Amino acid sequence: MGRIAYVNGRFVPHAEAFVHIEDRGYQLADAVYEVWALFDGKLADPEGHFARLERSLSELRIPMPMSRAALTTVLREAVRRNRVREGLVYLQVSRGVAPRDHAFPTTPVRPAVVVTVGRVDREATEARAARGVGVVTTPENRWGRCDIKTVGLLPNALAKQKAREAGAVEAWFVDDLGFVTEGASSNAWILDRDGVLRTRDTNANILRGVTRLSLLDVAREAGLKVEERPFTPDEARAAKEAFITGAGSLVLPVVSVDGKPVGDGSPGPVASKLRRLYIERAKATAI
Q: How deeply is 88 buried, as exposed, middle or buried, from its count of CB atoms within 10 A (0-12, 13-18, 19+)?
């Protein structure tokens, strides 16, 4: 059985899944997206992802395409039809199809909805977490509303390519003040020399990561001191540990920044523990 996608009310073979050439998401990046991790066929961090989706749509003045309950049914059916137990679910909602114009359509159009499901090799991801990954830094060059999860990701794609060409997994954006904002597709964290867990506050121009939010609770429950406070690349290299978080990476230890080791250059015990605790929580609360 091949992959199945959901496109505007229909489940179709993945190879036959198309959107209209005047879909505003395709032409103007006038769209938002969400990604859920799947554990045993269930959606992780459901409340956080639905809440962020609704906020992103509201900020762009795109109506919810259907109720949260109906959308949950669509997502679950996409998972069932693809027979995926461990993986990722991608949802994209654009303003819809309309003659190309920068301003919104004068006649309201129906939002366009796309859902795809992909498998994740959990053994491979656990092996990568056990090794740790490298990140590179790059100047912050994105627009001023990174809090909205839009599909306008060209700077992120270029940053990811820079990381790949350097043999790293992720790129960290660094703002004009010299502080790390976040990764191209993740939030950035360090455990500093004083044993304080630090990540950038959401008043800065960063995405309000759902995994990030869950991990803040997990870390505090584990008795860690947590501060939403910026750090520089030098502070990251001098830290005891560093890691990134996201629906795809979960909690992934960072062992080098721009080719220089973090700590002793291997995954630290705190990041490894937080990864285990986060996965336990995600599995327990998945729907």
A: middle
Q: What is the reported pTM?
A: 0.95
Active-site residue numbers? 149
Q: Tens digit of pLDDT for each residue in 85-135? A: 999 999 999 999 999 999 999 998 999 999 999 999 999 999 999 999 999
Distance in angstroms (rounded) separating the CA atoms of residues 283 and 56: 25
Question: Does the pLDDT value for residue 1 go beyond 80?
Answer: no
230, 200 Cβ separation under 8 angstroms: yes
Contacting residues for 19 by C-beta, under 8 A, at least 6 apart? 7, 8, 25, 26, 94, 97, 112, 114
Q: Choose among 57, 50, 7, 55: nearest CA to 32.
A: 57
